[in-house]
Amino acid sequence: MHSILSNLLAATLFLSTANAATWYFLRYNLPSTQQFLSFSGTMVIPKLPKAGTYYLWPGLQTTDGSGVYQNVLDGRSGTWWIGSGWCCANPSLPWGSGFNVNAGDSVAFTNTKGASAWTSTLKKASGGSTASDSFALMGGVLTDRFWCERTASKTFNQVLFAIELTGVSWDFGPLVFNNVVITSSGTDTKWCTNAPENYNSASNYVLSNIQASVSGNVVTCKIGTVNLQSPKK
C-alpha cells in the first residue's frame, strides 16, 4: 500500500536524493551477534497541520539494509491513518490493515517475531480500533496465483523512531512514544543504555526511565519515554 522507503542503503539508512525526503530519527544498533525479537510501545498522535507526505513511524531495519518493518502514521489524506507493513521488496508483501486516528489519541503497537512470521498489532486506547497482521519475513517460498518468490529470513539489528517528510516540514510538534519495550537475543545491554544514534544530530530529543535486564539469553530494554521534541535549528 505504501511505498515509504524506495531505496535502502545499509550504511546510510536508505537515504537517497531520489526520495527527496527529509529525515529525523533515533536509531538503536545491536552488536552483530544479536538480533531483535520484539518491539512495542505507545505512540501519541500529534496534530496534522494539513494533508501532506508525513510518515511518522517506529520500525525495525534488517542487517543487510534490504528493508524496514514499520508501523506508519500517514498524513497524506489530511486525516492521520496508521497501519503496519514491510517495505519494500523481497518479499513483496501486501500492506497490513489500519485505521484513522486523531491528534491526542494514543496507539499501542506490538511487533513480535514468531516461528514463521512477524506479527503486528495496533490498538487505539479510545474507541476500540484494532488491527492485527502477520508478515512472512522468516524465509521460505511465497506464492499466489500469479507469482512465486523465494525469500531469505530477515534478521533485524536496528530499531528506529523516525520522521520522514517529503514536501512538508516538521510543523506538527513533538513526536512522543511511551512505555517502549524492546527485546533482543544475547546478553549485551549497552545498545539500550548508551545514547541512540541521532541522525545528522538533526533532532532535539529526550529519553526517560531507561532500564536494561538480561534473562535466559534475552535482553529486555525498557524506555519510559522517547520524545522527539523538535528539529535543531
Automatic annotation (TrEMBL):
Q: So which domain of life are we looking at?
A: Eukaryota
Arranged from A to Z, the UniProt key words for this protein are: Signal
Leader sequence range is 1-20
Record-given protein name: Concanavalin A-like lectin/glucanase domain-containing protein
Species annotation: Clohesyomyces aquaticus
